[in-house]
C-alpha cells in the first residue's frame, strides 16, 4: 500500500459515551486522481515548480501544455538551465506571442491572443534547431534556426512558471507566470510524429499523454508558494465545444451582450467569419458610437462623437456574393488614426487620419449586429478587442483558421447566452474554412502552344468606359506573349495585353495607332511580378510591383468604351471571337490572380497597390474572377496548388543590403555565365567608392567605382600579347554624401559604346571606344571587391546588384531609379539580387585562402551579419578575424558600461570591442547633429545571457559577437550601485538622451529630481519632444523660478534655487491640473497647464537640454550647468499613492524608481563631459 494506517487503539474515557473502542482500518486508498490544474495566483517568484530529475541530453524534444490566463506581460511557462547555460531552453507566452529561446537564439511567433481567460493548448517540437508550433491543435509555424544545432545538454534543472537564471533556482521576477497551467508534459523524442498521434484530438480532450521527461502527474506535490491545485480540473477546450463551435443566422437586428461593461476605447479590432455576409452593421452604442458596416462592395467606418461625425469608406470586392466562407478583420486606433481592413488574411486597405485622438467613452452596454438588408447569411466567430491586433496575427487567424480566439470586449464563446433577437444557431458546418486558400493556385502554361488557353464568354454585359486589370506573371521567356485578349464582333483586338522581356504592351480598339509599348525593368527573370492596368476612355495608368510607372491619355478612341458581349482569352491572342489564335503570341510561364473590374478599382479609397503587391494576391474582380477560372483551363495548362507566388516586395530574401568588405567577395551567378557580347550592371550604393565588379576569364572585364569617377577595363590576349582597353570618366564625388544613389552602366561589344547612368540620368556616353568586337568567354568568375590601387577603409553599403547579358534601354534604367522613388524589384539574368544570401560566398582571406559563408538573418529588414577579415594596417594589426551580429538596429542594451569611446564609424566601434579583453557586445550610438563623433559603449553583458533589458532606442544599434566568443569574467564587472549624482560642469554639449522611451499616451505624470546649481540662467532640466511638437513637455529652472511647458507655459516664483545647495523638486500633472513641491512642501497647485489632452507617445526625452526636434538637436542657450540626482518620471500620480510622504522623501535625498524614467538606468547614458560622482554628494537642507 502507498500509505498504511493499520493499528489497534483503545479509546478510553468518554468517546461518545463509550468506555472503550477497539478497531482496525486501512487508509491506503487515498485519492490519486491526476485530473488537476495548477493556478499561479499572482506574479511572484515564490510561486514555482522546480524539477531536477536526471534530464538526458536531447536531440529531439516535444513539449505540450494547457494554459489559461488573463495577463498580457511576457511570462515564463518553462525554463531549463544547465551549469554552462542559464538559457538552455526557455518558453514564454505574452498577450499575442509564443516566444522560444534556445541559447543565444530567440524567436517570437505572433499568435491570436491567448490571454483571453479561456483554455488553449500549445504543442512544441524541436530537433537540433528545427521546430514546429501547434496552437489548439493547428500547426501554425514550422522552421529552422532555433539554436546552434546541438543537443540540449543533460543534467539540468526545469522550472515551471519562472525564468531560471541559474541551476540553483534563482529567478527573474519580471517573467513570473500568473494564471492556470495543466497537463505540462515533455518527451525526449518527437512524440507528435508518433503513429496515431492527432493534435486536433488532443486539443479536444483537454489532456495530454504523459511525458517521459516531464510527467504532469508527478508535479502535483512539487508546487511551491501560492500555487493552488484545482481538482477536478476546469480545463474546457474551445475546439468542438458547443459553447463556441456554432454559427448564427438572422434576418433581424441582433442585440449582443458584451463580455463586461465596455471600457473606454482608444482602439478596436473586430474579426469574424462570414458567408454571404453583407448589409450588416456592427455597432457599439454609447455617447460616442462606433459602427462598422459591411456592404456588397464597400466597408464603412463611422465614429459619431458629440458635434462631430467621422465617416470613411473603403472599396472592397463583391466577394460576399459567392458561396464561400471569408475571414474579415478590421482595426482602428485613435492614437494613429489608422483604419485597416483585412480580407482572408491579407491587408487590402489602409486609411489614415480617421478619427484621430477620439476616445469612445466607457459605460456602453450594447453591441448591435444591425440587419440593413434581409437575406440569407451566416456569421461565426465574431470577436472584438479593445486594442489594435498585429496584422501578422490577423493573417494567421484567417490562413490557419478558423482558430479559437476570444475578444476581451466581446467573445464568441457562449454567444447563445449573449444574443437577443430572431437568431438561429446551429453547429458549425464542415465547410467553414478559409475559402481563399482553396483559391490559392497558379496556372502554368508549359510551352508556347495554341492548345493552351482559357476562354471566357459573355462576362461583359454592358460597354465598359472604365476597366481595371491585375495579374501576377512569372516567366523566363523573352518574346512577345499574350496575357489577355478580348474580341467582339467586328473587333478582334478590342483589348490586348502583352508582355515582352522588358516591355508591357497595351492595344485598344484594334487600331495600331492605339498600340502602346511601355519599357519596364525586365520581367522575364523567373521571379513573380505584379502588373496593374487601369483604363478610362483613353486614359491609362500602368503599375509594376505596386509602383505607378506610367500614365497617359492617348490609348484608344477618345470617348469610346470597350464594347460588350465579347470573348476573353487568357494566354492567347484572339483572331476572332472564337477559338482562333495567333500562335506566335502564345504565353509560356505562370500566371496567377488574373482579375478584371468594369470600374477603376485602384482609385477607390483604401485601395493600396503596394499592399496588394506585398500580399501576392489581388481582390476578386467582377468581370474576370480568378477563382472561377481554375476549371476552365484547356490543353496542357497545369494548376499548381498551393500557389508558389512569392512577391519581391518586403521579401526577406530580397530586401537586404550588404555592408561592403575590404576584400573580394566571390559571387555565385544565377547560372553559368554565357559568353558576353554586352552587359548591363545596376546597383544602389551609399558611399560606395573604391569598389569593383569583375568578370574574371581569359578575357576579363572590370568595372570600378572610384572616388572621383568610374572606369572600365577589358583585358584580352591577342597575337600572344596581353592587351587591355580601358577608359575612365570623372564624375562628381557624390559617393561621399550620406544618400543612396542608383548607378547603372552598359557596354556593347557590337558598338564599343560604354554608358553610365547616375540616379536615372545618362551622364556619360563614350562611342566606339571600349573593346569593340571583343567577347567575354563563357565560364567567367564573378567578383565584388576592393578596387585596385585603393587602400582607404570606410563604411559603405550596397543593395540590389543585378547584372544582365544584354544592354538595357536607358528609359528602363531611368525607371529603375524611378526619379528618386526607387528601388524597383528587377533581377538580372547573370546575377540577381533576389535571394542574394545564397550567392555571396563570403570573404576570401589572403592568408589562409578559405571561404567563409555569410550568416544572414532573413527576418531583419537589413542584414549585417557576415564574416570579415581585416588585413593590412588596422590599428597596426596585421589581421583580425571576427563574426558579429548587428541585426538589432534601433536597440540599446541597458547594462553596465565598461568603457565609452568616440568613434568615426560602427566598424571602428566593432574593432575597438574586439581588442578590449572585457568587451563582449556594444551599444553604438550614431552621431547626433551636434556631435563630432559617434559614441561606442562597450559592455561585458550579452543580450542572450543577462537579465538586462534590450530597449528600443532609435539613436543606437546593439551589436554582439558570434566569434571570438569571450566567456563571462567576474573581474570585468563594474560597481553598479545606483547612489550617484551627475555633474554638468558647463553650459555646453552635455546631454542625456532617452530616445524611444516607449512612453505611451499618458494623462497623468509625476516628475521628481534633486538639483544643485550656482547658475542663475534659464536652464532646461528635462524636455520631451514628439514628431508633431518639440515643446510637448519642458521643465526649466532660473534662479528664483520654476517654469513648466505642457503645450502651454506657466512660471512659478520660488525661493532662489541657485544657492549651491541641494533642493528637491516634485511635479505632478493631470490633463492640465498641476502641483509643485519644493523641498517637500506643496508650493503651488492649479489648472490650465496645457490643452487638456494627454501627452503624445513615442517621443524623445532629453535631460539637461531643451530639445528642438526628435533627432537630438537642441538649443544650447538653455543647457544645464550644475548637478542633478534621482531624476525619475512616472506615468501616474505617484505622490498620491498611499504611503508616499514628500517631506520624508526630501529628507533622505532619494526618490523611489520611476517607471518611465529610472535614475538607475541613466548613469551610463550621459554624453559630453558629464561627470558621474559616486558616492553621491546629495545632502538635503531639511533636518
Count of discrete alpha- or pi-helical segments spanning 4 or more residues: 7
| CATH architecture type of the largest domain | Sandwich
Shape call: globular
CATH class of the largest domain: Mainly Beta
Report the end-to-end length measured between terminal Cα atoms: 71 Å
CATH topology of the largest domain: Jelly Rolls
Structural class: mainly beta
Q: Which sheet architecture does the biggest sheet show?
A: 8 strands, antiparallel
Query: Into which percent range does the helicity of residues fall?
Result: under 10%
Domain module tally: 6
C-alpha Rg, in Å? 35 Å
What fraction strand? 35-45%
* Poorly predicted regions: 1-15, 27-32, 835-879
What's the count of strands? 78
Q: Any overview of this molecule?
A:
The chain is mainly β and 1183 residues long. It folds into six domains: 37-230, Jelly Rolls (Sandwich), CATH 2.60.120.200; 246-427, Jelly Rolls (Sandwich); 442-626, Jelly Rolls; 656-832, Jelly Rolls (Sandwich); 882-963, Hepatocyte Growth Factor; 981-1173, Jelly Rolls, CATH 2.60.120. The chain is built from seven helices and 78 strands. The longest helix has 10 residues, at 906-915. The protein is globular. Residues 1-15, 27-32 and 835-879 have low confidence and may be disordered. Pfam families: Laminin_G_3, PAN_1, Pentaxin. One of its GO terms (molecular function) is metal ion binding.
